[in-house]
């Protein structure tokens, strides 16, 4: 069985889908590993490190004869030229609203898996790329906020006078938001947070932050059975926006992380709210790739309005490329291991396995995932 790791084709993607540690693990389960020359450089891994772990390094043509292709991002059809029909391709596929790209993926003959669709069940926790990457993004976004903010985070009592602690408000308390709360607290900020899922109140408080939300009947029912946020009614959104508006005016840093699976990110911070913040304040929009939680954020840009910075960094987990690659590569290995027959050391993909059903997008030249079937005209 041959595992191939081509270089990422998007120049803005510094992560890599395998590390030397995981090369050893794949070899340990009977695979051979080919890594494209330079694939790990932006994540701090040299070809020689991969070679020392037992991988072959190839300047090109890594897909030749590959049974499994590991990537960070969804490959374009061009990236899969020469792929063996039926070879497995694993990546963060970003499948929503990407009908043409999924058709192209199917056309390449790949059996493609979207790692971000992994069910959040106990067995699959170790394969949960959303969590591993969101956790790092939640940490990094606070570090980036501290860099953009022209003042200190902790309260400082000095001979020259007292410096007040920064006030940080986290909107959306999933995996990223929880890590952002913990990180901002560690830096000494006064932290508040909000979410539409009632279960988050206790989590916020257990991290030493204060919970801010309209806690009415709708709020008490606002979680799906899968643990995700529901889209809230317009009436709830209006009540919550009034509460949040008054709160944001008093904050130094607002970090937004709110997402609803398969939908555009909810708009939570209006232009008016930004105008209410004092100069020097910062809004960090972690949802910018999904349309943004702030009306004024722009993907990949730092917008400055009346002295308030609205930061829309892309691929925030990628800003910690080495750590993000290491966790992502472990997530991938844990899944690939389930697709291998231990006795024959060859691939055996069970189409009825819960994890395969949840993540497999394309097979035998067609899109097969029920959520992404082509629309019939
Ligand atoms: P996410 O990235 O989908 O969303 C981030 C947060 O934004 C969520 O907490 C969501 O409730 C919140 N949000 C959505 N709309 C909002 C709004 N209008 N205002 C404020 N907040 C809003 O979430 P996630 O980090 O992927 O976590 C989602 C769920 O999955 C959580 O219940 C989490 O505990 C759970 N989870 C389970 C596992 C597991 O069991 N393996 C692993 C990770 C996460």
TrEMBL record:
CDD domains, per the entry: Rubrum_tdh
Keywords from the UniProt entry: NAD, NADP, Nucleotide-binding, Oxidoreductase, Translocase
Residues annotated as domain Alanine dehydrogenase/pyridine nucleotide transhydrogenase NAD(H)-binding: 146-312
GO cellular component, as recorded: plasma membrane
NCBIfam families with a match to the protein in the record: PRK09424.1 (NF006942)
EC class name: translocase
Domain Alanine dehydrogenase/pyridine nucleotide transhydrogenase N-terminal as annotated: residue spans: 4-137
Protein name as it appears in the record: NAD(P) transhydrogenase subunit alpha part 1
GO BP of this protein: NADPH regeneration
Record's catalysed reaction(s): NAD(+) + NADPH + H(+)(in) = NADH + NADP(+) + H(+)(out)
Pfam family, one: AlaDh_PNT_C
Function as written in the Swiss-Prot or TrEMBL entry: The transhydrogenation between NADH and NADP is coupled to respiration and ATP hydrolysis and functions as a proton pump across the membrane.
GO molecular function term, any single one: oxidoreductase activity
EC annotation from Swiss-Prot or TrEMBL: 7.1.1.1
Protein species of origin: Lichenifustis flavocetrariae
Transcription is among the record's keywords: no
Family indicated by similarity: Belongs to the AlaDH/PNT family.
Residue ranges that the Swiss-Prot or TrEMBL entry lists as coiled coil: none
The keyword Protein biosynthesis appears for this protein: no
């Amino acid at each position: 069985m041959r595992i191939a790791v081509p270089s990422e084709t998007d120049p803005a993607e510094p992560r890599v889908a395998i590390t030397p540690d995981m090369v050893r693990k794949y070899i340990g389960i009977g695979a051979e590993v080919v890594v494209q020359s330079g694939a790990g450089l932006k994540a701090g891994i040299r070809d020689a490190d991969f070679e020392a772990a037992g991988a072959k390094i190839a300047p090109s043509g890594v897909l030749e004869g590959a049974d499994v292709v590991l990537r960070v991002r969804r490959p374009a059809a061009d990236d899969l030229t020469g792929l063996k029909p039926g070879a497995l391709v694993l990546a963060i596929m970003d499948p929503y609203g990407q009908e043409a790209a999924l058709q192209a993926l199917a056309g390449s003959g790949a059996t493609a898996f979207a790692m971000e669709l992994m069910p959040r069940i106990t067995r699959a926790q170790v394969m949960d790329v959303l969590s591993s990457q969101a956790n790092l993004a939640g940490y990094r976004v606070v570090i980036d906020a501290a860099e953009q903010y022209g003042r200190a985070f902790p309260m400082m009592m000095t001979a020259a006078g007292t410096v007040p602690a920064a006030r940080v408000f986290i909107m959306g308390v999933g995996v990223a938001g929880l890590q952002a709360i913990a990180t901002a607290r560690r830096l000494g900020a006064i932290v508040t947070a909000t979410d539409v899922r009632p279960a988050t109140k206790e989590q916020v408080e257990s991290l030493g932050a204060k919970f801010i939300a309209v806690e009415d009947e709708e709020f008490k029912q606002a979680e799906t059975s899968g643990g995700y946020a529901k889209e809230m009614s317009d009436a709830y959104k209006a009540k919550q926006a009034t509460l949040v508006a008054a709160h944001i005016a008093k904050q130094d840093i607002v970090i937004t992380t709110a997402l609803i699976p398969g939908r555009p990110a909810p708009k939570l911070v209006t232009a008016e709210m930004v105008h209410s913040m004092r100069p020097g304040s910062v809004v960090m929009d972690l949802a910018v790739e999904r349309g943004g939680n702030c009306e004024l954020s722009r993907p990949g840009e730092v917008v400055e309005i009346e002295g308030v910075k609205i930061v829309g960094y892309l691929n925030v987990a990628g800003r910690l490329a080495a750590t993000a690659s290491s966790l992502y590569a472990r997530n991938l290995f844990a899944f690939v291991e389930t697709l291998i027959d231990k006795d024959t050391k060859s691939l055996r993909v069970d189409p009825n396995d819960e994890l395969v059903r949840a993540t497999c997008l394309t097979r035998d030249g067609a899109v097969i995932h029920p959520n992404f079937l082509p629309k019939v005209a």
